[in-house]
Amino acid sequence: PKERGEPVAGLEGRANRCDNGHDEWPIWRFKPWLSEQSSAAIDLRILGTAMLNSISLVALLWAISCAPFILAASREVNFECDEETDLNAGVGNLWRALGSPSRLSDFRLMPESPYFKVDKESNVRIRGRIDREDPVACPDAGETRPCVIELNAFSDNDRTVVRITIKDINDNAPVFKEPQKELIVEEGDTNFQCPLDAATDADIGDNGMLIKGHYFLIGQGALYLVLAEGAQALDYETAQQHLLNLTACDGGLNPNCTSQRLIVRVRDRNDNAPIVTPDAWPA
Questions:
Q1: Helix-then-strand count for the chain, H and E
Q2: Which parts of the sequence belong to the Cadherin domain (predicted)?
Q3: For every one of its 283 residues, what pLDDT tens digit does the chain have, with 9 covering 90 and above?
């Protein structure tokens, strides 16, 4: 017989000495008396079972968390609001949009939106500032593509797809590539053409430059960037440079305007012969 605390043949164990001077019963691992092949097979079965249990648990948790999305019936409503609308402003009521005369249950947004929220009366309200020109808020918006933010609103197990179109407002002024531009014109050239920069505007439609945008040329002197018929040619001896402002205004109801400074320099040429006067000769 073996002393208590000593290994038994074919088993691996360990006995720890207690404070009272007696040995604990050994903690045994009951596989060493099996062959190595059998032990490996059992280990593989245990590992496989553990993995299957883990996968099943993950799948169960996923199904529970996603159950509202899987079981929900889908409905759709459409709202619209202006960009830069004040925080907490109302966009629309979900139950009224669905044709219900009264509130039946609460809505919740899943996932939550940084731009919208739903109050206890089922009103969709502005939660965060929305800029239509922001690529994060409206990644697909363009001159001809609208900005639409889509939300998922859940009431019980019913899902309502909420699509909110963000309308453009005239909140951007035209922009020139450079605030100042220098042009060189040859003295006496009556056929010159000096290209001017086009202004760009982040707004679209009438609020931008493409449809109703227009330009003004304001300055002093008789300067024609493209000389009109009968216009007098530029003369270096009369004026070496001309200063102008090119102003671009968008087509909004209250237009935004931006100006670019134009410096038109006249390049001298040999168009005058010397003049001899009697005062030029010594007496």
A1: 2, 11
A2: 107-176, 199-276
A3: 445 445 444 444 444 444 444 444 444 344 444 444 455 444 545 555 555 556 566 555 555 555 444 444 579 999 999 999 999 999 999 999 999 867 778 899 999 999 999 999 999 999 999 999 999 999 988 888 999 999 999 988 889 999 999 999 999 999 999 999 998 888 887 777 777 888 899 898 888 888 878 777 655 444 346 555 666 777 888 888 888 888 899 988 889 999 999 998 988 877 777 777 777 666 5
Q: Do residues 10 and 28 make contact, with C-beta atoms less than 8 angstroms apart? A: no
Residue 92 backbone phi and psi in degrees, to 5? 175, 165
Quick one: which of 3, 54, 10 has its CA closest to 25?
3
Rg, Å, the chain Cα set: 41
Give the CATH number of domain 180-267; options: 2.50.20.10, 1.10.1130.10, 2.60.40.10, 2.60.40.60.
Answer: 2.60.40.60
Comparing C-alpha atoms, which of 112, 95, 200, 188 is closest to residue 152?
112
